[in-house]
């Protein structure tokens, strides 16, 4: 199996990609579906081994320039596990299976009772418990920031970041003045993996699975895209109403147990939650609302300015370049996303991170890059959290 990158130069070339997608099973890595492809956009897609020759000849016949990003997907999957850390159990520099992450949530809360507590906010379609960590010094009337990881099952670097951030919080509290001040004055609600069933499935059956694992009545196709399942312009644009598509919006908003649990929790804590950060991959982007419409949020200038500064903070460590802006305009329109929904609930500071890289490894970022990716992202998150703390509303 190969992963190709094509940059269609005009509408005709976009049509060729559409034709390819209708002829064979293509897994779009970026953008999320063929409907979002437009001229001059980087389009990354994965093709089954027996179809690669057909794809290459069709692209060549139409004089479309392409490159093979990943020549052998299986080799790239194995190459992900290149961490030099040989820990038997949980490690912050390795990708951890769900059981290991679940045990870690209990361990880190038990080891840091004055800073971390664990609760269950719901259960998944396959009856797994959804653990939420609350990180912060005990206090009254504290405002909070909600951060989640692992919406899309194959984006493994995302849960790795949530784990890293919690480690960073407990290890640097009392040493790093910014982190200490943040934890003294704010709480962080951290959901290490939202789409647990999908994440488990990427470890056991299909590394490239994206959606939840719920059954769809009247269809053999499994799963809903949790990031198209929120009541924010639901299913209007950049989402599909076909259960077989990777951007399927679900039968109704919050049809998924996972998205409903998250939305219920945020609704219950709306008076205290002042920011929402959702962590995805890949593309190196820092996005804010809106994605379901091209219209700007009312505090656009402020969001744009702080996204710019946060991107600079992130780049200050390893010179990793991020693009920032409103979702629809910066990448493509997509309805039903959690950030737009949170923003429309009145949470003024809502951001989506798309972590490393820009396509060399895509969803198969090697473990050797976890540390650097997380270190730089912590800088941006700390900057944003500190900004929120100084601009409470």
> In angstroms, what separates the terminal alpha carbons?
50 Å
Domain module count: 2
What is the CATH architecture annotation of the largest domain? 3-Layer(aba) Sandwich
CATH class of the largest domain: Alpha Beta
Count of alpha/pi helices = 12
Structural class: alpha/beta
Radius of gyration: 20 Å
Strand content: 15-25%
Strand arrangement within the widest β-sheet reads 5-6-8-7-9-12-10-11
Name the CATH superfamily assignment of the largest domain: Zn peptidases
Helix % is 25-40%
- For the report, how would you describe the main beta sheet? 8 strands, mixed
Low-confidence stretches: none
Order of helices and strands: EHEEHEHHEEEHHEHHEEHEHHEH
E-strand count = 12
Q: CATH topology of the largest domain, anyone?
A: Aminopeptidase
Mean pLDDT: 96
Quaternary state of this entry equals single chain
- Overall form: globular
Enzyme class: hydrolase
Pfam families: Peptidase_M14, Propep_M14
EC number: 3.4.17.2
Protein name: Carboxypeptidase B
